């Protein structure tokens, strides 16, 4: 049975992530949705901030709260509550995710070093999810999946042509067969597979049509 919190988080996710979370086992769904919802929340925070300083202040709040014991955090935010319930011991990876998004505060185009920090932070959160699910042996594959998804997703949302082309070039270098994932990590295979298809099309939405949904279903059910 899914917790109400996990179901609530689904509403905060973009379509590709929402599709992916459908394939998480019930006992792992909250942790998976919490990480992806935090990532989406941080992206929205930057998109809505009227000036860089305001964005940095909001990011700093998340970094500070994630650095506290779960019992000392405020209650009522569904993302923060879900993290407290499911990410004990791996909060550093989520703090790294905040640091990664902070790279995007600068005016475009993002330089190569900043893009690498951003991509590595998202990939690191995927690897941490593998460890939380007791699949540490799959952490490297999870990191590779996260890297491909991070680049494809960045390219899909980049408004600067130089950022778009740079991310696609890096993604093509990173692209390969989607790693076979344990059942608990199938959502990561779904996101990597959708990213792979988007990169092969030259960038754009990760879910662009019915064929992408069918691929997500296949990856979610069979892992490859």
List the helices and strands and how they pair.
Elements: H1 4-10, H2 15-21, H3 26-48, H4 52-66, H5 78-86, H6 91-102, H7 112-132, H8 139-157, H9 161-174, H10 186-200, H11 210-222
Helix pairs in contact: 1-3, 1-5, 2-10, 3-4, 3-5, 3-6, 3-7, 4-6, 6-7, 7-8, 8-9, 8-10, 10-11
Helix content percent band = 55-70%
For the record, the count of structural domains works out to 1
What is the number of helices? 11
- What is the number of E strands? 0
Classification by helices and strands: mainly alpha
The termini sit apart by 26 Å
Give the strand content.
under 5%
Radius of gyration: 16 Å
Sheet with most strands = none
Order of helices and strands: HHHHHHHHHHH
The coarse overall form would be globular
As residue ranges, the low-confidence spans are none
Arithmetic mean of pLDDT? 93
Pfam families: SQS_PSY
InterPro entries: Isoprenoid_synthase_dom_sf (IPR008949), Squ/phyt_synthse (IPR002060)
Protein name: Phytoene synthase
Organism: Pelagerythrobacter marinus
Please characterize this protein's 3D structure.
- This protein has one domain (4-222).
- The chain has eleven helices and no strands.
- It has helices at residues 4-10, 15-21, 26-48, 52-66, 78-86, 91-102, 112-132, 139-157, 161-174, 186-200, 210-222.
- It is globular and about 45 Å long.
Give a concise summary.
Helices cover 69% and strands 0% of the residues.
Which features does this protein show?
69% helix; globular; 11 helices; 224 residues; mainly alpha
């Amino acid at each position: 049975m899914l917790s109400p919190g996990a179901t609530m988080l689904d509403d905060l996710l973009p379509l590709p992530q929402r599709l992916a979370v459908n394939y998480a086992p019930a006992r792992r769904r909250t942790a998976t949705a919490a990480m992806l919802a935090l990532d989406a929340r941080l992206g929205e925070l930057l998109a809505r901030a009227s000036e860089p300083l305001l964005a940095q202040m909001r990011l700093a709040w998340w970094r500070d709260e994630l650095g506290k014991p779960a019992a000392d955090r405020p209650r009522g935010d569904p993302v923060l509550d879900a993290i407290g319930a499911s990410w004990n011991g791996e909060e550093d990876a989520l703090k790294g995710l905040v640091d990664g998004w902070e790279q995007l505060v600068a005016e475009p185009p993002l330089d190569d070093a900043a893009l690498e920090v951003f991509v590595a932070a998202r990939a690191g959160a995927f690897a941490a999810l593998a460890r939380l699910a007791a699949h540490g042996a799959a952490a490297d594959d999870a990191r590779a999946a996260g890297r491909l998804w991070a680049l494809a997703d960045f390219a899909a949302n980049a408004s600067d042509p130089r950022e778009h082309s740079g991310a696609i070039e890096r993604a093509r270098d990173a692209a390969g067969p989607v790693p076979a994932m344990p059942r608990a990590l199938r959502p990561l295979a779904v996101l990597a597979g959708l990213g792979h298809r988007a990169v092969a099309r030259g960038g754009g939405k990760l879910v662009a049509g019915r064929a992408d949904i069918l691929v997500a279903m296949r990856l979610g059910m069979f892992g490859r």
